[in-house]
């Protein structure tokens, strides 16, 4: 009679478990989920900026200053004046940054992008606070371009 050769069920299970452990520990090195998470966070900031700009425009319309090109203001929720351009927040610290709590300041979750190379005229760029020195206006940032006479502001997310 011939002796049968092969692997036992226990040996196969042990090999599969070892391969599973190796895959779990090695997979994060091959998949960079941090950049996807940062980009998703920036998408959330984009939505906040768009919503806040719409609310400010509504306040400007009620006040009757939605067609003023510069110098008009409305009062924000924290009793600070928000500088307007055609009814929308200006692309400055006195404009869009005062519309969203935590957009700028020592306790903020966000920070203006340090580098301004490639930043369009009448625009401001924000990123996640711990990325402020690494981000650019074209990478890992949200760029807010203020409204024009016949156009609403543009908010663009640049992936990380």
Describe the structure.
The structure is a single chain. The protein is 33% helix and 18% strand. The chain is α+β, with helices and mostly antiparallel strands. The chain has one domain (33-158). The strands form 2 sheets. It has a 4-stranded antiparallel β-sheet, covered by helices on one side. It has a 3-stranded antiparallel β-sheet with strand order 1-2-3, covered by helices on one side. The chain is elongated and about 95 Å long. The relative contact order is 0.14.
How is this fold's topology laid out?
Layout: H1 9-30, H2 33-63, E1 73-75, E2 81-85, E3 88-89, E4 110-112, E5 123-128, E6 141-145, E7 154-158
Total beta strand runs? 7
Radius of gyration: 25 Å
Q: What is the mean pLDDT?
A: 88
- The computed structural class is alpha+beta
Distance between the termini: 66 Å
Strand content: 15-25%
How many strands, which pairing sense, and closed or not: the largest β-sheet?
4 strands, antiparallel
Strand order of the largest sheet: 4-5-6-7
Low-pLDDT segments, ≥5 res:
none
Shape from CA axes? Answer: elongated
**Helicity, as a percent range:** 25-40%
Order of helices and strands: HHEEEEEEE
Number of helices: 2
Total domain count = 1
